[in-house]
Amino acid sequence: MEEQYADVPEADLPLHVVFAREEQKRKKERDMQQRGNRGRHKKKKEAEEAADGEAENAKESDEQTEREDNEHE
Questions:
Q1: Compositional bias (Basic and acidic residues) spans (predicted)?
Q2: FRET pair for 20, CA 20 to 30 Å: which of 37, 45, 48, 72?
Q3: What digits encode the pLDDT tens for the residues 35-44?
Q4: From CA 71, how far away is CA 64, in angstroms rounded?
């Protein structure tokens, strides 16, 4: 259908073609938005996991220090 109206000025296009093009644009924008949201969510999740890992490492380090202190006493 697009090939049929490729060289027709936009003002002369039938309404169904105009609506179809607008719908394609909206769909493309929605898809891009969803991809962006997924990317932000993934980054946020990775940051949370990294923070959890750092907290766990700090806890293990504290426990190790406490064990060493208990051994010296």
A1: 19-33, 56-73
A2: 37
A3: 877 766 677 7
A4: 11
Tokens for 13?
Answer: 């296009």
Which residues, 6 or more positions from 17, have their beta carbon under 8 angstroms from its beta carbon? 1, 5
Cα 27 from Cα 21, distance rounded (Å): 10
Structure tokens at 3: 């090939």
Q: What's the pLDDT tens digit per position in 12-34?
A: 889 999 999 999 999 999 998 88
| Alpha carbons 3 and 63: distance in angstroms, whole number | 70
pTM as predicted: 0.45
Tokens 């049929």 — which residue? 4
